[in-house]
Amino acid sequence: MIGAVLIDIDGVLYVGDRPVVGADRALRELDRRGIPYRFVSNTTRRSRRSVARLLAGFGYAIPETWIVTAPVAAAAHLREDGRTRCFLLTTPDARTDLEEAGLLAVERDADAVVVADAADGLTYLLLSGADLVALEKDRYWMGPDGLMLSAGPFVAALEFATGKVAEVIGKPSPAFFTRALRETGVTPGEAAMVGDDIVTDIGGARACGMKGILVRTGKYREEAVRQSGITPDLVIDSLADLPDHL
Questions:
Q1: Taking the alpha carbons of 243, 147, 211, 132 in that order, is the dihedral positive or negative?
Q2: CB 3.0–4.6 Å: which of 14, 162, 175, 176 could bond 126 by disulfide?
Q3: What is the pLDDT of residues 112-121, one digit of tens each?
Q4: What are the Cα distances from residue 99, in Å, to 53, 72, 112, 115, 136?
Q5: pTM (2 decimals)?
Q6: The CATH homologous superfamily of the domain defined by 4-42+171-245
Q7: Mean pLDDT throughout 112-134?
């Protein structure tokens, strides 16, 4: 019995500039059955407010507070640890989630260098002692024109240059999944994660005790699944098919 569902956004609710057919009906069915769900994303280009606005444009009525993104999780994590002075390698839009949560964007004497997929402004702050915090470490994501580099290659370059190991905040971090589940009152062992990335979505979910449900939309590639060594609990064509398997 699945008590709650975490749902990836890009590649699951929409692909490129089109919503996934039937995904909205699947969400309504979860509502009808009383199964709580939240949306989780490693996007580091958009703020949570912008993600909610984007989804509304696709016809999804999703409360902003139901969306947990890597910047939102990073802001909470860093603030809890008392690391509030940060050099932010992010887009201006994603930066709003960090600054509104109380982080101070600085150019020097930073507690942490926060890396998203806007890492063209590489810095020497890491060599001066700042922590390396990666909002995510995905290799690529599915953009409107095909697969595009994500933050992972930039993070790997910084790790190589500095000898530091990045602290990854977004998926597949177990803390990210448990933070997203917190409001549902459901433990990881009672929950499922639905996503299109075999490593960050499915591997990450299974590592923290959740079931992993892989969809064949978005950046799903059969070869990538085969090479990953990760076995999903279930593979479905799209989110539209989820209610049939709960």
A1: negative
A2: 162
A3: 989 886 545 5
A4: 19, 10, 14, 15, 18
A5: 0.85
A6: HAD superfamily/HAD-like (3.40.50.1000)
A7: 76
